[in-house]
Amino acid sequence: MTFLAPMAGLLAAGLTLPVLGVLYVLKLRRQPAVVPATLLWAQAVSDLEANTPFQRFRSRWLFWLQLLALGLLLLAVARPALEGEPAPEGLAVIVLDRSASMNTVDPGFDETRLERAKARALAMVDGLAEGAGDGVAVVTFAETAVFRTDFTRDAGRLRSAIEEASPTDQRSGFDRVAGLLAGRAEGGGPAITAVVLSDGAFDPPASRPGMGRVDWRYARIGPEGEGVGDGNVGITGLSARRSIEEPGRVEVLVTLANTSAGAARARLSLSVAGVAGALATRGVDVPGVSEDGVGRAEVLLSLSLPRSVVLRASVSPGGDLVSDDTAWLVLPERRRLRVLLAGSGLAYARAAAEAVPGVTAEATTAEQLAAMGPADFERNVEAGTGFDAVILAPGEWGGVPGVPTLSFGASWPMEALRLVGPGESPRASPVLDWDRRHPSLANLELGDLTLFAPGRWVAPASAQVLAVGLDGPVIVAVDDGGVRRIAASFGVGRADTDWPLFVSFPAFVDNALRWLTLDPGAAGRWVRAGATGRVELSPGEEGAVVSWEGPERLESPPAADVRGGGLFGPADRAGLYRAEPSEAVLAADRVQAVNLCDAGESDNRARAELRIEAPSTAGGAGATAGSLGTDRRELWPWLVAGAVLVLCAEWGFYGWRSRV
Asked: Does pTM top 0.85 for this prediction?
């Protein structure tokens, strides 16, 4: 409740309350009168004996009734009003943010921002007049946006949709909300009023057709003032990688963010999930907010972890958002790969493959490869059968197996991919340029090697050109029906190139095999909340429904891909999830780590305004969503009516006391 004219009420009280009090303590002025006796006038005589102009206050019902009536009138003068949520009018959408930052508990509150947003949304629904407006819908969003109800006047349905909105540790996908509502408004129907209950911790949405027909209203949930709060220190990045030279040595990189105005001292702890004690702890000074944004600090830790583990990173004190205080990472042992080398002229390639830790290479002839069927390539890690990849020697192959391939001077029937030979007058060629961003060529130097008589690839537009020679592409990466393939237009014999003499060649073979087989190898893995991850299914379990037990129970029917994989997620909450039944998933994938790890959500400062770009302002500064405001209901008419009733009661009581 608020007072619209508090000073007027105080002034009136200062003038009238003393007058009422004085009227009840002043003595009456009496006229002298002669009476025959004072026997019946004892009270009057006692009053006359007092010489002061005031008399002692005596409690009377009339006084308290008059004081109550005066108090009600004074409150009416101050104009009290009840503040409530304004009910949406016309065609309206209540947009409820349930992203990770809405799990913040602000100073002075016991509820999270999401709980407060739901309370405000329910108050809006309660303010709906029966049958008023053109209808209201409820949309909730985190990583994705969903219509929980269509447009309706049924307050019960709206309340149920709001109450069922659950918290998540996902990122905010407000751009999807904008697309959802703009698409609905663009259809030519009436304009939409969108009431966004959020802390505004997301980037402005992209401009799109239909945005101009949505009247955005921002109901901020969070402390008053721009960027006000106790601040938050959270984990925004976690990665780990095994050393290639020493696979038992692991380097872990943790990124911390700080939304406080000043620097914060935090304690970072790294441990094995489910095991007491810490592997390492560090005190970290994280800078505060600056003109460049939130403060960040990176911590690099080197650990000895020869076996597969689940790492747990935690920071304390974290602040008012707990979702980013902890992160997990699954660090597998480097998977052993079985590679089949087919054809002749691959001596250098075989030596390079066998030099890679965890790779077993076997050779076969072209005839033997042609006689092999799909079952011969089906990989069973635990049984040690099948192959993860095939390296093809130069020549024309009638077909290639349905597993990833690394080929040198080999060609095979594939639509839009054709190898053009060097011609009658071959010439030596350097590598003019190469894709340094591709994982197979990362950190490699190819400028010094020579290709003696390379061909060139005529590749489809979807292919990735990895290296270019004098006549055109010499190394390409293609997706052949869901199977990755890297193809070089030259062989790797002494007459083909001097590349095997450089250290970049075995590094390329290692990188290429890891990329082709989707092997995380040296890297740890986790899945962001709201995203999906790929898991390897056990042989014969391609149609199994896998359940995942963790902070929530997930049931994800595996969408089998061409390599027999399945899907995990998406999960709402961060934490560790374990497969049930575990036998349905290969041992390396039976535990999945889900994290927030998002700098935008860790920056949980409530935004003062919501920036929206409509098509008319595309490329400009955009527009600011209007404030929702409040619905004020003044109470003074009820107070005046109450005062009149009290005065009527006072007059009735006075008449009853004065009867003869």
From this structure: no
